[in-house]
Amino acid sequence: MRWQGRRESDNVEDRRNSSGGPSMGGPGFRLPSGKGGLILLIVVLVAGYYGVDLTGLMTGQPVSQQQSTRSISPNEDEAAKFTSVILATTEDTWGQQFEKMGKTYQQPKLVMYRGMTRTGCGAGQSIMGPFYCPADGTVYIDLSFYDDMKDKLGADGDFAQGYVIAHEVGHHVQKLLGIEPKVRQLQQKRDAGGSEPLICAYGTPGRLFCRCLGA
């Protein structure tokens, strides 16, 4: 994917040198490798999207206060520029599509952070993976997730990383089109009935449709 030299988004906030607040104590949790890691990541991501924090259960560690002071490496800086370019691409693409529908595309924000950060949906943690918060219309990502994709899931390359951003922007598009509230209603009905697990309620049709939007 040729992205160097392309327009970067103006809707990016870099909190990597200011991310702090509560963090998990002890050695920390690392994403398991293989399919198990992918399934675990999806479960935690989906639960966090609906306001359910599973990170404490998974780590069994107390919450402490921690402030990030580590410097940003050249590789991380390149990943940040790449992420900004991909977000700009989604802005251009969805701007054109909404214009065809006679609508104005309200561009989402994107926050890059490290470890943990505050969001409109509560505390955001890197263990949750990239996620979209409908309350503040913002995509959140700890760029170390790209390393986990490569090392733990075997998903390397610009296309795979770019798809992650496009997928989360897809959730924003769902919200703008009025689809996201309907998905939440479906989830709440199924969750109340206890007939299907959370992952199924979100995946049909919301998560799969969001994959389509991200593609």
Explain the overall architecture.
With 215 residues, the chain is α/β, with parallel strands linked by helices. It has helices spanning 34-49, 55-59, 74-100, 144-151, 158-176, 179-193, 198-214; strands at 12-14, 22-24, 63-65, 109-113, 116-119, 122-125, 131-133, 138-142. Strands 1-4-8-7 form a 4-stranded mixed β-sheet. It has a two-stranded antiparallel sheet with strand order 2-3. Strands 5-6 form a two-stranded antiparallel ribbon. Mean pLDDT is 74; it is low at 21-30, 55-68 and 196-206. It holds the Pfam family Zn_peptidase.
List the helices and strands and how they pair.
Layout (H helix, E strand, L loop, with lengths): L11 E3 L7 E3 L9 H16 L5 H5 L3 E3 L8 H27 L8 E5 L2 E4 L2 E4 L5 E3 L4 E5 L1 H8 L6 H19 L2 H15 L4 H17 L1
Parallel strand pairs: 1-4, 4-8
Antiparallel strand pairs: 2-3, 5-6, 7-8
Helix pairs in contact: 3-5, 5-7, 6-7
InterPro entries: Uncharacterised_pept_Zn_put (IPR007343)
Protein name: YpfJ protein, zinc metalloprotease superfamily
GO cellular component, one term: membrane
